[in-house]
Amino acid sequence: MRSYRKALGGGAIKVAMVGVAVAGSMVALTSPASASHKCGDPAFDYEEVCYYRHKDYSGGSRAFTGEDKNYTNDYYDYASGTVALNNTISSYNNRHWAPYHAHRYVGQEGPLYYIKAESWDSDLASSDWWGSETGDVNDKLSSHTGPYTG
Ligand SMILES: [Ca+2]
Ligand SMILES: [Ca+2]
Hints:
Elements: H1 2-30, E1 49-54, E2 58-64, E3 91-94, E4 100-105, E5 109-115, E6 120-121, E7 143-145
Antiparallel strand pairs: 1-2, 1-3, 3-6, 4-5, 4-7
The structure holds calcium ion (2 copies).
């Protein structure tokens, strides 16, 4: 009886370890830490929107090509790289030939800011939300959809 229990316990541990390994690989495949990249990367030439922390395209930058549901895990390219894009973006340059829709909240929720194809804005404090939302969009962007290539 004693040896039977010991054998059973060993099997349970093996099953648990396999489960952890499978869960780990699924996370790596489905949720990368960040979808952003350094602005001006030749691999994404003319297919990226570049965001800046301060107005006049200064204070650190970070770019996207596809959509992004959450800016809290994307960081400006600085020496330290510790400031997230969420609620800090103050200017942008959309080098993509297609538009994006930026959102007030993470999860692509809330009011929209329309980023036109091949457009730029040096100071988002002078830009408004799309639709009925009042106030400027400076330091309020948190996610985006697009590019809308259709
Ligand atoms: Ca993100
Ligand atoms: Ca800012």
